[in-house]
Amino acid sequence: xxxxxxxxxxxxxxxxxxxxxxxxxxxxxEPTAPVPPRRGHRTRLLVxxxxxxxxxxxxxxxxAYAYAGDVPRGTTVLGAELGGRSRADAVRELRAELDxxxxxxxxxxxxxxxxxxxxxxxxxxxxxxxxxxxxAAAAEAEAHPVSRLVGSRSVQPVVSVDVDRLHAALxxxxxDQGRKMTLPAITYAGTTPKAVHPKPGLALDPQRSAEVVRxxxxxxxxxxxxxxESHPATTGEEVDRLMKELARPAVAAPVELTTDKGSVTIxxxxxxxxxxxxxxxxxxxxxxVDVKRLRAALGDDLSSxxxxxxxxxxxxTAGRPKVVDPGRPGRQLxxxxxARDLLAVLPKADGRVVTGTLAPAQPELTAEKLGGxxxxxxxxxxxxxxxxxLSSSRSHNIVTVAREVDGTVVLPGxxxxxxxxxxxxxxxxxxxxxxxxxxGKLVPGVGGGISQFxxxxxxxxxxxxxxxxxxxxxxxWFSRYPAVIESTIFWPNxxxxxxxxxxxxxxxxxxxxxxxxxxSIWSTKIYDSVKTEYGPRRDITTPKTIYLTPGPSxxxxxxxxxxxxxxxxxxxxxxxxxxxxxxxxxxxxxxxxICGQEP
Length: 599
Prior knowledge:
The chain is α+β, with helices and mostly antiparallel strands. It has 4 domains: 41-68; 69-174, no CATH class; 253-363, no CATH class; 372-595, no CATH class. The chain is 27% helix and 29% strand. The strands form 14 sheets. It has a 4-stranded antiparallel beta sheet with strand order 22-30-29-23. The longest helix has 29 residues, at 38-66.
């Protein structure tokens, strides 16, 4: 790339002022000429005074010339003469010079990053001369008075660049030359600590890259952008010290937790699950006790010393939402104190005892808070039907999950997760075997039927106008569900989640009969209506016939056509459509499964 060099300064053809020196007699001992008449003496004094005034006048004129304008005389930028100009004139002159150099300034800039030679287009990374800042620097730079008069100086232009865009471009060009920093870590396999020693990283530093590109753009020649090595703040030796002084001694013996309500033994296994060694972005490794994990590891052991707080509860009675349980405060361990004190005794071989303080614990939801959430009317409701009565395993599962969700309050801004709320839905939680879709066919599986509740629940939130966060329709369409507007679920991979994006709380109310399941959302109504408009079905496919080995795991089906379809959620408020959301899905054709050998 050809870059412009500096211009030779123009010949200085400005006038030079010469001042004649005046010598005054200073030594009275030297012989002197006869004293002239008084009039002549006065004449000489007047002449001398006149010469002095002339000198002072000349100097003043020179000073005025030298300091004229905002930019010192003799100042150039990229060869453009800016000296003696006002800032506004200097800006115009510099912009004119940049326009003359536009073609050269637009040429790709040659870079070397690591072992790769690259080129970037200045405009694509915001590389440009900051005209206003350059003129300001030229005007504010110090200049000696003599330099202002007869000297010259060149001021380097102020170059700006978009640091983020430059970094993104350099990263893409650099490819795999860098390496990520290996952060230090200590983890436990059971009660055996394992160390991960740190390793330095090699990467581009955004600010350093911008600095060298700004400095080298107008200098000519390729610009070398360095890959900088970054070392974790915690060294390998410090990791080994933490292993020796804390990680191993921590799980060498139990710790006794004493309270005024009794004692609890914290076993090494519980310690290993709660002692966390984490590194921040700089690679500084620190240890802490995660009390939440400690609680989970101790399980029911804490119930002997703690009384958990109980949230107030709301339910729909006589057609209205009411607080039916005011809740109660509890007494729980001071988690901050416990984490600090437990961490202090873990390195010790003896005296492994900590005293826990039981502090009052208020429930998250009080009756007063519930009363102020605006839960006052039914916003939406949705019902689906099932067969087999309440005695079937599938119906049992639907009712079981409905009871778990009933009465749940979702606060403003919160995201509700069905998997997160119920946890695993297995035999231990009271669920039974019923048909589920697995690998494209119906097979017996624990928790079958939960998808029908999920579809009902999804539709209730859908018609309440709530934000959809995660849902997935079934692979096959079942006529008991609305097309596209339905959802399956499977622990732990498939979830149903929605966000309460209103300013009011939500109450989830579930009810059932021997053949129906209903989910209603209670809150404050904010929309006139929420409706669905369907597009036509398209790309229809027909089912194929598949023969399966007869047996208890074989479930026959008659087959269903596959198709694609769009559904639009149309939300109206104040008589106007304020939102139109598109939901699309493609259903596979469900094969016709026959339990028997192919004829």
